[in-house]
Write a structure and sequence with these properties.
- This protein is an all-alpha fold.
- It has 5 helices and no strands.
- Helix 1 crosses helix 2 and helix 3 packs across helix 5.
- It is globular, with a radius of gyration of 16 Å.
Length: 137
């Protein structure tokens, strides 16, 4: 895994998951034009694309959060995370707009987003530790 902040990983994951970049079109991420594809939104924030391995790791961590969140009606971490990082128009919505859309308070959305980011980061760290233990033996 990289030393990039979890928010950067999630921005790149959300962009590649939702905005139909080269990976979701069936092209390999190393295709010459994949880096040059223009995506709407976040024009001022340049987040490098994820490699296929990094994307898979982030996707697994987010899906683990989904499985953990679904049984509880009060656990909004997955919905908030996907709503925040996989916006339909390619721009990250503000917490207030996301709160209105989900029918939650702004404070609850912020708390759920921070908790979801921490969950994903912990899952990525745990996976990296497991890989390190296997490689180190």
């Amino acid at each position: 895994m990289t030393d990039r902040p979890v928010q950067d990983l999630l921005y790149a994951w959300g962009r590649s998951r939702h905005l139909s970049d080269a990976r979701s079109l069936g092209y390999p991420s190393q295709a010459a034009f994949a880096r040059e594809m223009r995506t709407p939104g976040r024009a001022t924030v340049r987040v490098p694309s994820l490699s296929d391995d990094e994307h898979g790791r982030v996707e697994r961590a987010v899906m683990a959060l989904k499985r953990r969140s679904e049984p509880s009606a009060d656990d909004h971490r997955y919905r908030v995370l996907v709503g925040y990082y996989c916006a339909r128009d390619g721009r990250t919505p503000g917490e207030a707009a996301l709160a209105r859309r989900l029918g939650l308070s702004r404070d609850r959305v912020r708390t759920a987003r921070i908790a979801a980011e921490a969950w994903v980061e912990a899952m990525l760290d745990a996976e990296q530790d497991r890989v390190g233990l296997v490689d180190g033996c």
